Queue: 2 jobs
Job 1
Amino acid sequence: MAENSSTQPCSYSRTIELALVGAVVVLAIIMRMRGISEQGLRFHDEGTYYQFGTTLLVGEPGYGREIFYKPGMAVLMYGAFAAFGHAGSSALLLNSLAGVGTVILAWYLARRLAGRFAAFGTAAACAAMPYMLFYHRSAMTESPYFFLALASLTLVVVGLDRADREAERSTAPTLSFVAAGLCAGFGYAVNAPAALIWALVVVGGVVHLRGRRVSARDIAIFVAANAVGFACGAVIPHAVCSPYAPAETAFSPEARLGNILQFSPRFFCLRHLFRYAGPPVLILAGMGAFRAWNTRHRFRGFLMILTAGLLLFYVQTDMTWPRLFFPLVLPVVLLAGFGVDFIAERFGRTSLRRWGIALALAAVMIGLGLRQSLPIINLRSGYCEAARLLEKEKSYNTITFHGWTILSALTGRRFVADTQESLFANCFQPGSRETPEQRIRKFVGKYGSTHLVVDYFFWKQLRSPAARERFARFLETSPPDRVIPNPIAGHRPTIAEDGESSLDILEAPNARNIYIWRLPFREP
């Protein structure tokens, strides 16, 4: 299609655009940075990635610190520690900065694709979306790999745009394609879904070039440049981390792909998009898809291939974790921007009126997103306080449940990890003639530990009311030395991210605490 009216120059339109986009970016910064130093780590995997970065920082692996997968995340964590200091807040700050960069980069990409109104709508959709904010305020892999995948897509679009506009052959587009592959390859080293996005982007680029009727040689150069960049981007983090990797893992593809290749049509992705992206964004994305499909936009193929490819892949994925479907957010926010542009052009006769419409639509997306996101922004983990208490003790080994990676990362001490089954079996087994205290003494004698730490993940194993009642009685007869409130136990998205489909844990008030027993003995 010809350039739409939203891209026509106007004496005041540029000033309005910069002011509104600047306000959205400031909002995005506040929502991602506010209280980040006090939030603390929440997920088991966050502790793992923290330890990966610590291994590279220290220069030698320690107990539980081997880098056994996702070497790209280990390199990023090391960079965060080197830049901001070796602290939990540094790990979170890394993803918050990547989140702010995502908002800015999404605006820039949409600006090149469809103009200023689409770009503003895309930035607004990103700024306060709970789906994004949840990961931008964590130390998980979703925020950096999403940013790297978005950077890869942007570089491909920029390179193709340069190739379309330049009459003479230039090396600039080829360099842009190599850089796109580098970003995607490093993103794959952070987490596998970045490679899926990149593969669809390359297919979209080939379709675009064929539509431009360029030579087979130019298409081959495009594919080869991306592939070379991808290989380099994936291999470099692997080489950096390989001295600290156990020989038996060696960063096998299975370690990074995992359950993502298990298929069974469940349509979990649509449920998560509706719940965490929000109805306004999805409605605008639907309008944007209609707009893109029914126009002659030069890069329509990218959006259609990216959207259709990800949907076809993820509707078949038989996993409930919201993080697994996060790549779908990329086409959704871009299409939502197209939807804002469509409505602004259809109902606005002047540039000022179109900006008013775009601002109203952005306010709806941001307002509803902010309402859902406030619990995420205000969430504080109890693991930081637990770590501080444990650091004051002279213990070395500790029995803990699930949160051991976080506590080990923050305290730098050895923790007993294999407690998911054995802790309950050895300490709270029903029908035993031994008291729970006696069984704990045997378990402590076996592992040589001095503390017992139980968090809400332990309660997830207590499926029956009778089991929960037994543990409640144990709390009464053997009161812990420390009880630390842990609000994440009542946070639904966090529970969903830990693979829990049932939310009945919310009915157990005692599950919302971290319990620490001091066990000053080593022999049964």
Job 2
Amino acid sequence: MHKSKRFNLLDEPWIPIISDGKTAKIGLIDLFRNLDTIDEVQDPSPLTTVALHRLLLAILYRNLKPQTLEDWVELHSKPWNSVTVLKYLKNHHDSFWLFHPERPFMQRIEIANEKPSSLSKLQLERSTGNNSQLFDHSADDATIAMDFGAAACAVVTTQCWAVGGGKSGGGRPNSTHGHQLLGATLLSRGPDLWKTLLLNLVPMEFLGDTPRNFFRQSQDLPTWEQPLQGWPEKRPILGISDWLTWQCRGLLLIEPPAKIDQAFEVIVVQGESIVDSPLIDPWMAYTQDDKEGWRNRRINPEKAAWRDSESLFAMYRQEGAKSNSSVPLIAYQALHSEFPECAGSLTVDVIGMANDKAKLLLWRHERFRLPAKFFTDESAYDRLRQALETAQLADKCLHLALRLYAEEFLTMGNRSPDTKDLSNHIRAISRKESYWAALESCFHRFLQQIMEEDSMNIWKADVVSSIERAFGDSINSCDTSPRHLRAATKARGYFNGLLYKNHLKEAKQHAESTA
């Protein structure tokens, strides 16, 4: 149990920021006082970056909570005024102690008698429990020291991104995932931190449709204002600030001796569960499953996020649509429609973690710049979909050509090859990963030029150049035997025929002739 009050998050520096191109750490009071002069909050871990933005949004929702689009526009039209938020924080100063005898920030004293673990439990990039060794080779019992600021970030991050699947002990239910593992978070970015937070502080009327109507409940309070109750418990969501600060884990940092300003151990157990837990988070895109209904769009470990941009940025709902974008993007589209003077192009970060049950696989952080036309012209979205379909079609052409090569190489056309041998050979020679990697920068250029007359032909030319290079690299990775040369010649002719048949070669030739 904590014996003293130590490290208040309002006053002590702990939030990583970028301001005037320089990095620093500041407390919540200084951050909200200077919200419009800070470029951004950014931690080396994108998971922590998301978690900190959710904490800041919870504070803003508690104090500002725009109800309508008109309320939101009024906030957009005025400079940042810190008076209300600073008064709120100072009134709740006692709620923000990292170590506190009764109520440490986003922690629970009730679990003080449980067995403590290494702080590696709070570092998702470390190899603890079932986690893959993503970025280090530490062990569960390794001694990890964190300064108090880093420990505070780890607590906030764990409450968003904790990985479930383990036994919690003490008669508690097994551990469940944190909410952010449900899908990819879309974080709209503005020119400064105030504008970034404002772009994500969507009006309450956009959160009122089923199944998000629980965000409109009037008794909404962040976790530090709620009365202490039994632990753990299963309860309904009180509202948006409650959701943003939900304690999916029971945590308690072990307080070090008075003269030591580093933490070494933490107690971790299963936290609060949600009654009728919803799958939809306003800051995530979601897709419709015929059996399970709407589900959050997850990070795919096999491909970059830009390849899923059709569903991530699906703001135009048509009859029978299977995808829908995040609520901030839908609200920004409405802002474009009703108050175009307040809106323009928009930068969006896509951040998420891929996991296989309780095992972490990787995280992604990709940044997109959506042109203004994307919010006002539905044909821009249609072009995006067409561009991605073109890229996928070229990938299919590559696979078919390599399949023909493998069949000819393995059997000289005299018999059908063994299915397993065929798959292994294609996998061994294919360089399709390099194709998709080469297209990424081309895609971002296409996105900026999406409504220009020749943008689609230029994109198709980039696709053909990249797929031809991938085909050549795949074939050239083989030997130089007569068997190989015969198979390669046949596959190359087939590959070129596929490109012409699907009208890809013509686009490249057109782009080259007009260059």
